[in-house]
Every structure is written in structure tokens, then in C-alpha cells.
Design brief:
Elements lengths: L1 H9 L3 E4 L4 E7 L2 E8 L3 E3 L5 E9 L7 E9 L3 E7 L5 E7 L5 E3 L18 H7 L3 E5 L4 E3 L4 E10 L6 E10 L1 H5 L9 E2 L3 E11 L5 E12 L2 H7 L3 H18 L3 H4 L14 H10 L2 H11 L1 E13 L2 H51 L5 H8 L9 H4 L9 H9 L1
Antiparallel strand pairs: 1-10, 2-3, 2-11, 2-14, 4-9, 5-6, 7-8, 12-13, 15-16, 16-17
Amino acid sequence: MEWIVLWLAERDLFLTTVKEAQAKIVVRYDGIDRCIMAYKDHVLAQKGQTYKMPIKKLKPTDPKELEDGAVDKKVGEEYETWVKNADGALQQKKCKLDEWDVLPADWFQIDANGNTTPPLEDGGWQKRFGGGLRWLGLPGVNTIYRYNFIWTSLEQKKEESSGKIKTVFVTKEFTGEAEKRGGNGPIDYVPLFIDTYVAQVEEADSRDGVPFNVQYLITARVVNPYKATQKVHRWLETVQNQIGGKIVDFVRDHSYTDLLDQSKTDPSKPSDSKIALELNTLLSDERHFDEFEENLGVKVDKIQIWDISPSNPKFIETVTKRFTAEQEGKANVVTATYYQQQRKLEATADEDYNRRVYGAIKEAGGMTVETAKQLKEIKGVLSLGGEAANIIVQQPQPEKEKKVEEKK
């Protein structure tokens, strides 16, 4: 009997199986019928059920601090909680409980008899067969929703040559095209577990026109299967596109020298460079994360920059040469300016020196022709032109002739 049940479930005939931390969407006559899930200690929020939603509220004794609280809410009802922003300021945040939200089982409201308000889904089948076996419905009427899903994740693999464990990127494709090539067809489940997805922005131009590739990691999980598959075409691509737009703007606002401030210290881990940490801070916007959860049914826990590198190493080499040439040109201008100023200072010093020399000659009443000839041979002396013409170059008189003239 049991093998017949498993045979039917594997083929989605009357029954189906759901693996742990996954959900499947049941389609009936091309319309969404219900969601079935296998997730220990978790339930799907359903209409008419009451849940005790945890909140943060202000401490009565200290309004600057928060404390835990709870409110009873049904699907579709709004409630408020307090959050602490990155700058430490407290702010109220509006929330709403939606149908198909994945919730911890202990959030159920307990009635007066100590029983949970929501009924146990497919209780009879689960009790009888256990595990992830679920009732699907009549073949051809009730089917499992399938969709294309491509993602890249980080995995640890052992190198055959060295035997070392290495972090690698592994891309998985579940599409109709892949199925035609002998690969996996469209995926028939919604992953609810936390996973780290790898994404990349290619050829984002820096402020000076250098194209860069930016690889980043998104740690996220689906918290509402309906929103993630029905309210958006592909939730992962939508998240990547919105984050990628911010990265493009960030790269455009920085020069390539800023983006290449330092290389990764550990190639197997996210980048810890200054520019990567700056970008991490920009992308880790709680308000943006809240929009993902409310609109896409996806809770993003964190974003990390894996690597920032030029799209084309040859291009950066060319730009570096141009930059070096520009810097050398600036250095040559500085050098030429320096020597020009130095020559001006030397000329000024010569003029000042010569004026004092000629002044002393004038006070002495002249100098011998032989002395003047010697002075002309000294570099820098007698270079004032007109000033030199004013100096009387004469032969000193004998001592006796001087005395006769003085008596006269």
C-alpha cells in the first residue's frame, strides 16, 4: 500500500511530496487554489485565524529604550511596532499580516481550552504517512505550479590536486530550455530556507569612464510564497535589479582610483576593502529591506560585496598609463615653474648685490681701471647696465696732489 502511495506522490497524482523548508503552490483550473508546506515549527497564515504578533514598544520607565511586546492580529490587519534606526533614533513602523505569510508555529493564538485556533492542514494524511506527504487533488484538475528559476550560490568544494577546500560559484538552472537540453525543467517548489545568492553588475562606468564589475552576495529567504511567485515575475531578478541600480549609481560617483583602493585580503571571503565596506553600508538600508519583504515576500538579511574589479584589465592598464603621463606632465610643469622662479630669485639677488657693490665704489670715489676689469670677470657683477655707467672709473690721485688741492 505504501509503495503505491509513494508512486502516486512522485508523479503528482492525487498526492504530492514536499521537502523540508519548501512549499508548493496548488493550481486548480489555472487559478491559484492553495499552498502546501513542509517546514517544522512553522505555519502559513490563513484568513480567519488569529496570531500573536511580536512587536517592540517603548519602555514606560525609559522612553528612549525598547522592550518586547505582542498584539493579537488576523490576516489583513495592520499593527505598529518600534524600530531603532542606524543612527540610534527610534521610529514607528507599520506592519501588516498577509495571507500565506510563513510564521513560527508558536505565534498561534491559544483559545480558552488551550488549543490553537488554526486547524492542522491535511492532518489525517500527515498523521498516517508522516513526513512531507500532502493531498493534491484530482489529476488534471489540481496541478503543481512550476516556474523558471536560475540562481548562483556559494559552495565549498575540494580541489583534487591540492586537497584544499575552495569556495566556488555554482549556477543552477531549472528552466524549460534547460529541460530541452537534458537538464532540469521548471522548478515546482518555493525554497523557504535561508540561502546566499551571488549576483553581479557588469561594466558599470566609474566617474572617469572606467568600466567595473561588482560581485555581491544576497542572503535572503522567501517569507510569503504567493508574493514571491505571483506578485512578481521573478523575485530574485527583481531584488538583484534594484540592488544593481544602486551599485551603478555608487560606481558612477567614484573614480577608478577610489574603487581600486585595496585588494581583498582573503579571496575566499567577501571583500573587506574600504570602498566595499562603504558600499555595504549604502546597500544595507532597512527601509529597502522592508520594501522587499512587503512587496516581494522576500526577507533580505544582508548584502555583502564580494569583489570590485575592472571589467577589462587591458583598459585599466591604458588608463593607468594615461594617468601616469598626466601626472608626469604636471610634474614637468611644476619643475619648469620651480626653475623659472629660481632664476628670477637669482636675478633679484644679483641686482641687490651689484647695487651694494656699486654703492660702495661710489662712496670710495671710484676705482682703478685694473679693478674694474677684474670685476667684469666675476659672474653676476656689472650686470646692471645703466647703473654701471653712473660709476666713475678713475685713476686714484697721488697723495701730494690731494693735499695741494685740499689747501686750495
